């Protein structure tokens, strides 16, 4: 199908869909970029959907500040609502960043410093470090953390043990400074510490990068909080408090409020959730790998070569759960097998493509379910996790794609759209990942 076949009323949603496709490219590339640091994969040029290079950059948008203000007003009600529902203090509301910071990630509210300054930080479960735009930063957005106003703020020196955990530290004077890339951005930050609180429990002396200079458009405007498995991540730094255990429910990315939740610590996690073992890859220590053994479309187990799914720490092959990618990517032979069976089940309707999606329909369809068969855990996706619809409901596409050829395409990524409205438990001490359906949009 082409854009000409769309009526004027649906053109906005069509643009939105293109934006999704573009951000998909961006996300995958940023993931690929993140992974290439260990000498695997290649460097890929990326740009963000709202960058100046993007043809889909909206000509008129509501300002970021405006949308944040609006959301904060709603958010206040949401917080009160949540605290009335859940007495456990370690539940943090999660919102889709798309509506709030025009970023494809999910965000949480963090209180940083003493007295606390509120920042809407992006979550990234495939990244370890945290950074916050600090006052004086060149290239950051207008919302920054004012270090001078915090009585608990400290700069870490080159001798600090945390300075050995960052990649390529530069010691300028006594400050531990480091230069890193994230997606299309380069970020220069000082390694610093301050109090940070996502829930009612403040974490003292949290080590993070205080951004001095940022280029490119991949930096989430109010900072990023890494929930990976490696040193310096939120898990590692809150080990005593939250025991390297958390879960989240990601709301639909069309939801504009903080209706999702991030649950920190072993208390309050679903006790009988079905789980699959977490696998460890020393070469990509931040990532949450699991064993995907097969995929069912409807009741049929599709024919996928074992090598397409096998975990291999040396090449990085295998399957991860990632919060920063929107649409699931499967290595080509796996994707093709799934897509072919999906098309067969849908039947006669004409298949078209749209951007990176190759299985789209412009008539209503009855979609089969898709089941990911992990070791000890089958997860069946309902249509809401499988189909992306134009707002007008004219077009729907299977919201998955083959891993792009130009990156190290050995990784299957279970992405956020497929995780939406599920509770995903990351239980590092017991080395398991749990999945259960939960409506949080
Ligand atoms: C950080 O990296 C950028 C881009 O690679 C480079 O231009 C800059 O000089 C670096 N800064 C420091 C302090 O190393
Ligand atoms: C980073 O550290 C240097 C040296 O201590 C300092 O001059 C600079 O202001 C710091 N930058 C930020 C953004 O705090
Ligand atoms: C959040 O948004 C959804 C729809 O997007 C709505 O149904 C729900 O009531 C909202 N929740 C709050 C607390 O505003
Ligand atoms: C998953 O589904 C397959 C095929 O239907 C079945 O053989 C297997 O026992 C199921 N596994 C679990 C853990 O339910």
Structure description:
The structure is a single chain. This protein is an alpha+beta fold and 441 residues long. It folds into two domains: 3-9 and 270-437, Acid Proteases (Cathepsin D, subunit A, domain 1, Beta Barrel), CATH 2.40.70; 64-264, Cathepsin D, subunit A, domain 1 (Beta Barrel), CATH 2.40.70.10. Helix content is 20%, strand content 34%. It contains nine helices and 28 strands. It has helices at residues 11-35, 64-85, 97-101, 234-237, 239-242, 306-309, 332-346, 383-386, 416-419; strands at residues 91-96, 106-112, 117-124, 130-138, 154-155, 169-172, 175-182, 185-197, 202-215, 224-226, 245-249, 260-264, 274-279, 289-290, 292-297, 300-301, 318-321, 328-330, 352-354, 357-361, 370-374, 377-381, 387-389, 396-398, 400-402, 411-414, 422-427, 432-437. The strands form four sheets. Strands 2-3-10-4-9-8 form a six-stranded mixed barrel. Strands 16-15-21-22 form a four-stranded antiparallel β-sheet. Strand 19 and strand 20 (357-361) form a beta hairpin. The longest helix has 25 residues, at 11-35. Mean pLDDT is 76; it is low at 1-89. The structure holds 2-acetamido-2-deoxy-beta-D-glucopyranose (4 copies). This is Peptidase A1 domain-containing protein. Residues 1-34 form the signal peptide. It comes from Populus tomentosa. Belongs to the peptidase A1 family.
